[in-house]
Q: What sequence folds into this?
């Protein structure tokens, strides 16, 4: 049985270091992007320049869509508007419903889609449950740099190890 905890690409990189050509090589044309921790630090709405550049490059090559579990429409709308991207907030990942709605909006080809996020128990699980590719990235700190010690991820990986 395929585990819902399976990460297709555990990049060990912040999102802005993910190579777009590598994504294209994997056949990916649509990217669902987590917001908190992935594009911005959870406690900030300031989008790092590196992330903005990565998004504007990626827009030329992929269809992008933000999917956040954050219940604050104000916060997620602000970030989405600044990046000029469609979004869902309060998405209840790993529940499938909102993510499936977003997928339906953008395409019918689930094999071309990947979700990029910083958490296994939300982003990766929902990706596997929706039958799309899953990419794990490093969480960003307030300076927009990857955090070195991510206790949440260590715990999630430990639990994943025992449940695989
Ligand atoms: Mg996140």
A:
């Amino acid at each position: 049985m395929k585990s819902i905890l399976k990460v297709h690409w555990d990049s060990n990189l912040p999102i802005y270091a993910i190579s777009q050509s590598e994504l294209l090589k994997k056949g990916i044309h649509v990217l669902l992007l987590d917001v908190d921790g992935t594009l911005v630090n959870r406690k900030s709405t300031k989008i790092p320049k590196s992330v903005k550049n990565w998004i504007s490059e990626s827009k030329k090559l992929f269809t992008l869509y933000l999917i956040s579990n954050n219940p604050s429409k104000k916060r997620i709308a602000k970030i989405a508007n600044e990046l000029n991207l469609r979004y869902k907030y309060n998405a209840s990942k790993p529940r499938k419903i909102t993510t499936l709605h977003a997928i339906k909006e953008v395409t019918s080809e689930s094999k071309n889609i990947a979700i990029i996020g910083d958490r296994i128990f939300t982003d990766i699980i929902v990706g596997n449950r929706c039958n799309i590719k899953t990419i794990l990235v490093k969480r960003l700190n307030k300076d927009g740099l990857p955090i070195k010690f991510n206790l949440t991820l260590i715990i999630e990986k430990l639990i994943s190890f025992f449940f695989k």
